[in-house]
Design goal:
Blueprint: E1 5-11, E2 14-28, E3 33-39, E4 43-48, E5 51-55, H1 59-73, E6 79-84, H2 89-95, E7 102-107, H3 110-119, H4 121-124, E8 133-137, H5 140-149, E9 154-160, H6 168-171, H7 176-184, E10 186-195, H8 203-216, E11 219-227, E12 232-240, H9 251-261, H10 270-279
Parallel strand pairs: 6-7, 6-9, 7-8, 9-10
Antiparallel strand pairs: 1-2, 2-3, 3-4, 4-5, 10-12, 11-12
The structure holds S-adenosylmethionine.
Binding site for spermidine: 63, 87
Function: Catalyzes the irreversible transfer of a propylamine group from the amino donor S-adenosylmethioninamine (decarboxy-AdoMet) to putrescine (1,4-diaminobutane) to yield spermidine.
GO biological process, one term: spermidine biosynthetic process
């Protein structure tokens, strides 16, 4: 591995090769091969089944873009569910909103969480140990079924899973059937967000996810942002039962909400959210 290349699948016929400086950890869990490596250009990186998930150099772009538009769209997100998000960075961003009382993070693979706790403190920044955090090891599908049975309700649900086309373990959570179940554990004015990989390289798969969201939620917004270490623009989808996503186009109001909630970011602000939503997807 040393001095060799991590070949990151991008499209069916295209890859991005990144030179490895050092291998930090490698483990085959019951669900996936987990690698933590230090790579040229991007620093420490989490790689699952050969797909780069996040790097210290640019993960903030991805995690802030995934979390804050949905959190801002909801006027008072107290209970938030994160499905996936193994490295703890999505949890970190959710906890920045000072009204959040409980952030539940459900990941299928405890080994991803344990390796991230030990080797990727720059990503979780202690979020796993925050008193408002509740980390559950379970398949997101099973967890949501159980939450429906016990009548649990969330203000915001965020899916930060492996891509809809890269791993078998996440595929079923990107379907209309599962998003309908998510809608059942969302409060009346609930908001949903998910990453959906690359529309450019996997157009059909992406459109299936976007159509699933449009079939379940009254308001849906699609946006994307370039993630240097991914080698492509990552697509995101927000779904809301009650709040028109156009609210997010008012950048002064968005900045005011971020300020009032005490949310400090490196990338996201009102103008960038408005720009991403206005630019749409291509
Ligand atoms: N940031 C990454 C990206 O850019 O796409 C994705 C975040 S994270 C590393 C993906 C997480 O999804 C992993 O920790 C994996 O274990 C988790 N995961 C995959 N399928 C899952 C499922 N069915 N239920 C819960 N977690 C799942």
């Amino acid at each position: 591995m040393l001095g060799t290349l991590i070949v990151q699948g991008i499209g069916k016929n295209s890859v991005m090769a990144i030179k490895v400086r050092s291998l930090i950890a490698i483990k085959k869990s019951p669900f996936q091969e987990i690698i933590v490596a230090d790579v040229e250009e991007f620093g420490k990186a989490l790689i699952l089944d050969g797909y780069l998930q996040s790097t210290v150099a640019d993960e903030f772009i991805y995690h802030e873009s995934l979390v804050h538009p949905a959190m801002i769209l909801h006027p008072n997100p107290k209970r938030v569910l994160i499905i996936g998000g193994g490295e703890g960075a999505t949890l970190r961003e959710v906890l920045k909103h000072n009204m959040v009382e409980e952030a539940v993070m459900v990941d299928i693979d405890k080994d991803v969480i344990e390796l991230s706790k030990e080797y990727l403190p720059e990503m979780h920044q202690g979020s796993f140990f925050n008193k408002r955090s509740k980390v559950v090891i379970d398949d997101g599908k099973n967890f949501v079924e159980k939450e429906i049975k016990r009548g649990a309700q969330y203000d915001v649900v965020i899916m930060d899973l492996t891509d809809p086309y890269s791993s078998e373990i996440a595929k079923e959570l990107y379907t209309k059937q599962f998003l309908e179940k998510i809608s059942m554990i969302l409060v009346e004015d609930g908001v949903f967000a998910t990453q959906a990989g690359s529309r450019f390289f996997y157009r059909e798969v992406y459109e299936d996810v976007a159509n699933a969201a449009k079939n379940v939620f009254k308001y849906v917004a699609e946006y994307q942002v370039w993630i240097p270490s991914f080698g492509y623009s990552c697509n995101f989808i927000i779904g809301s039962k009650n709040f028109d996503t156009k609210i997010l186009l008012n950048h002064e109001n968005v900045d005011k909400v971020l300020r009032l909630r005490g949310v400090e970011t490196r990338f996201i602000n009102g103008k960038r959210i408005a720009a991403m939503l206005s630019m749409g997807i291509y």
